[in-house]
Amino acid sequence: MALDVQVDDLVRLRKPHPCGSYEWRVVRTGADIGLKCQVCGRRVLMARSTFKKRVKTVIHRSDPPEE
């Protein structure tokens, strides 16, 4: 399954962060995915393969870039 995420997408992960939040904002894409917790602001870097396993849903997609 190809998961297409872009910067500024809001995603829900399967397990909560220690602060209690399930929601994360994508801040970086590539081989690794950078995420920022929506409650405490903690930033983490996760391998794309791990991210695919942990993501539950995409809550909100960012606007597509204009060409």
Q: H/E element string?
A: EEEEHE
Alpha carbon gyration radius: 11 Å
Strand percentage lies at 35-45%
Strand arrangement across the biggest beta sheet: 4-3-2-1-5
**What structural category arises from helix and sheet content?**
mainly beta
- Rounded mean pLDDT score: 89
Biggest sheet, open or closed, and with what strands and sense? 5 strands, antiparallel
| Number of helices, where a helix is a run of at least 4 consecutive DSSP H or I residues | 1
Please estimate the helix content. Answer: 10-25%
Q: Could you give the count of β-strands?
A: 5
Unreliable spans are: none
- Number of domain modules: 1
Q: What best-fitting shape do the alpha-carbon axes yield?
A: globular
Distance N to C terminus: 27 Å
Write a structural description.
This protein has 67 residues and is mainly beta. The chain is built from one helix and five strands. It has one helix at residues 48-54; strands at residues 10-13, 23-28, 32-37, 43-47, 55-60. β2 and β3 form a beta hairpin. 9% of the residues are buried.
Which structural traits does this protein have?
mainly beta, five-stranded antiparallel beta sheet, 1 helix, globular
Summarize the structure.
By secondary structure, the protein is mainly beta. Helix content is 10%, strand content 40%. It has one domain (10-60).
Structural topology:
Elements: E1 10-13, E2 23-28, E3 32-37, E4 43-47, H1 48-54, E5 55-60
